Structure to design on (230 residues):
């Protein structure tokens, strides 16, 4: 790292969580003690991360077969033990608190809180999903381009719909994809022509609002601007 990166993290007063997909690590970076701290949790292919501030929970998508949606919470304390001693950790350590298993074909990528609800990009279904309390996932949004005479095609990854810029509602959100049609080669196939095919979908119209991108992902609203990794 170069520049005043750790200083910026200290000034922000936060712990930054980073998913390292191909190293299979979830990292936590902090300056809470006044010096750089790095800790990690081993997870298979972690991708999207979302923080539910109202519930004090962190959600992490693990994109393997089966997909797993992990929930982490701050530990309240330690069990009383006579065979070891330890310092107080209440509120300072994130621990796995739950896991939801989903089919590998869900191909879960980005996660985001849209309003009070957690949502995810189900790349394998060309859709955005919510997570009902009783388990599983439920499709709640998809682009109009996957609809035809036989209905919407949720059976193949046509678009690589993998990014969520969360608004207050689905209609106020935006979503990134590597293409916006069902014609020809699909993302992941070697013959797929990727250059300039990417789009940003409007949640309100379900149509592209921006074209000409290449593998766009990780869109985020910052103030009144929409940022996207192209």
């Amino acid at each position: 790292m170069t520049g005043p990166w750790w200083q910026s993290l200290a000034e922000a007063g936060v712990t930054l969580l980073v998913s390292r997909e191909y190293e299979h690590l979830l990292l936590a970076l902090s300056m809470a003690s006044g010096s750089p701290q790095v800790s990690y949790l081993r997870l298979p292919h972690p991708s999207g991360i979302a923080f539910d501030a109202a519930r004090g929970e962190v959600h992490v998508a693990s994109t393997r077969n089966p997909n797993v949606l992990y929930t982490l919470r701050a530990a309240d304390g330690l069990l009383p033990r006579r065979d070891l001693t330890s310092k107080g950790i209440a509120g300072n350590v994130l621990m796995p608190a739950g896991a939801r298993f989903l089919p590998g074909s869900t191909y879960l990528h980005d996660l985001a809180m849209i309003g009070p609800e957690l949502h995810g990009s189900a790349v394998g279904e060309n859709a955005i999903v919510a997570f009902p309390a009783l388990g599983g996932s439920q499709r709640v949004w998809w682009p109009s381009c996957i609809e035809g005479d036989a209905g919407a095609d949720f059976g193949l990854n046509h678009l690589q719909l993998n990014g969520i810029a969360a608004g207050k509602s689905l209609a106020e959100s935006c979503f990134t994809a590597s293409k916006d049609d069902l014609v020809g080669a699909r993302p992941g196939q070697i013959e797929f022509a990727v250059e300039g095919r990417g789009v940003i979908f409007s949640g309100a119209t379900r149509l592209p609002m921006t074209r000409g991108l290449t593998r766009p992902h990780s869109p985020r609203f910052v103030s009144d601007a929409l940022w996207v990794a192209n």
